[in-house]
Amino acid sequence: MLLILILLPLLVSAGGWYLGKRSPRGYYDLALLCTILEFILSVSLCFFRAGDVALPGILDLGIHLTLDGFRQVYIVVISFMWMMTMLLTRDYMGIRHGTHTHTQRYFFFTLLTLSATMGVFLSADLFTTLVFFEVMSFASFPWVIQEETDGAIRAANTYLAIAVIGGLAALMGLFLLYHELGTLEIGLLYERAAACGKKNLLYTAGGCILLGFGAKAGMFPVHIWLPKAHPVAPAPASALLSGVLTKSGIFGVLVLSCQLFRDDPVWGMLILSLGTVTMFLGAVLALFSNNLKKTLACSSMSQIGFILTGIGTMGLLGRENALAGAGVLLHMVNHSLFKLVLFMCAGVVFMNTEALELNRIRGFGRKKPLLHACFLLGAAGIGGIPGLSGYISKTLLHEGIVEAAAEYGLILHAAEWIFLLSGGLTLAYMTKLYVCLFIEKGAFEEKKRYMELPSCVALLCSALLIPVCGLFPHAVMDRIAAAGSGFLAAEPLKEAVSYFSLENLKSALISVLAGAFVYLVIVRRWMYQKNRYLDRWPAEMDLEDRIYRPVLLTVLPEVFGRIAALFGENRVTAKLAYGLYRTGEILGHALSDMTDGLVWVLQRTVFRPDKRNYEERSSHTYVYQIGMSIDRYREKHGRSGPEELSFARLFERIRMSLEHATHNLTDTMSFALLMLCIAICAVMVYIFLIRN
Questions:
Q1: Residue 401, in any domain of the structure
Q2: Do residues 461 and 346 touch, judged by C-beta distance below 8 A?
Q3: In this structure, are residues 501 and 123 in contact, taking their beta carbons and an 8 Å threshold?
Q4: Pairing of the two strands 63-65 and 528-529
Q5: Residue 166 placed within a domain
Q6: What stretches of 624-688 adopt beta strand conformation (E)?
Q7: How many secondary structure helices (H) and strands (E) does the chain include?
Q8: With CB atoms 3.0 to 4.6 Å apart as the test, which of 148, 396, 510, 686 could cross-link to 327 if both were Cys?
Q9: Residue 541: which residues within 8 A CB-CB, separation 6 or more?
Q10: What digits encode the pLDDT tens for the residues 58-101?
Q11: Residue 624 lies in a domain
Q12: CA terminus-to-terminus distance, the chain
């Protein structure tokens, strides 16, 4: 059953590719059916226990899948989000009218990403996690570049660069971890790490892996892709990028924090610090943004910071981490749900206005009650208003910080106030969006049909879950928290939490008052002047343009250039450098010639062209003999047809076509394929030597 969850979208994506060439609508219907089946299968696993899956021998270490309460919760969330966004895609992509381009590519990579994401959350070891994680990263790249505008291309380059750098860092961390612990199985990491005496080496490995997964989560300082990718990606893809793919990064952080470094206050303080900065900085970026989807993207960064703060608190609390653990899982689920609703609302706005800047979409939501209600539920939910699900998870996270503050003092008290202030900033920027879309007047007063029935169903079904979970926290939210406590190594809640007690309502009130102050004083008086929203964010504060790109493209080349220039001042060092250069050049040519030589040998042995004519070789192939047997049977029973319709000739032609395709492949991709094989072999030898 677990393997079906991964293989189903993979097979549909490949099979639907050919259908999409002729009928984009047919491909859409097939993709929608696939997501519905994935949701049904995911829910069915709540009632039927699925066994673990092991596929040994794949990439030497094998692929291993498992299912527990935490994974169960999230595969349901994943499949639900894919199903809802696919319903919206019908309108957004103009499937009915054929108004959007590259739909075939979009559906193919959307299903491929679904397959890989399922693999990430079902993985039983970190090697399997990384394999699916990298496939997911590259499969989601076409989402960002879908529109092929200059902004989309630049954002896609940033997304890909972060994915590659993060993936390589994580891979090096796994090498170190496997070398020291002898396993990457998630369930064994804690006891192996406890028995390992090289704590600093484990921290080094953990730091490398954290960089890889934290980059996907949108954690500071590797968050730079997130505010740039969401505004240019299609809205359904943005909902998945924000609601699901960032959680795949959180999954990796949870494995490190709850298994490898369980009850480690040093690691907990690191995650808490990074989470606090991410939480506050994301909220500030969202407040200053005047682009609807960019605001939601920066909001995702901030909410990821809330989750990371909770994870850090778990490490500080040790065994007394029930409240923080429940808050982490519930806020992960809540954030996925909020961003599903909010990005789908943003998609409805964009497909009607073709704009995202607040000054151009002002007033669009007026006289649109369904859109109004859904956006309001999403905005109030993410702001932590009592009665909605966001209030429940934020209350648990806050209670966890309060517990830790009793032991760690000033640092945690500061984190608590940043937590409450960030909650206020969340309310401020969501109020900014709400007032702009639904209160202020604009040029969208006319009544017209602005979305079709499938989009209405997707929005309404997603939005209604927010008050249902918020009004019945013990019946819904506590059960979800209990399901994931084992994976999080968190103690289950010993008694029912008084969510609506005066003390908990007081903390929510502080955030509400802070948000009202920020909105009325900063937004309305400073950011909004002469009936326009002003861009007040300094351009010098862009980390990518001001730090990362200059360092990678200017500083490092300059440094290495000066180092190289030093060799010219001394004859001995100059000769040594020249010798190294010539050695590398000779080795490079040798490798290139060796590769071409291997291709030449293969073309004259395994893939040697058969110069005999069709009639001479047909009788010597197995497929021809099978076809002849079928023809004789048909002839014996009086069903034979013309010679050109014989199965023998048909099978032989198919075989020749496949052979011709194989020759074309070796002719056009030989160098790349062989280099890839050499690289894979080198990695496998390295792993083998380490293990033995």
A1: yes
A2: no
A3: no
A4: unpaired
A5: no
A6: none
A7: 28, 4
A8: 396
A9: none
A10: 777 788 898 888 899 999 999 999 999 999 988 887 765 445 56
A11: yes
A12: 34
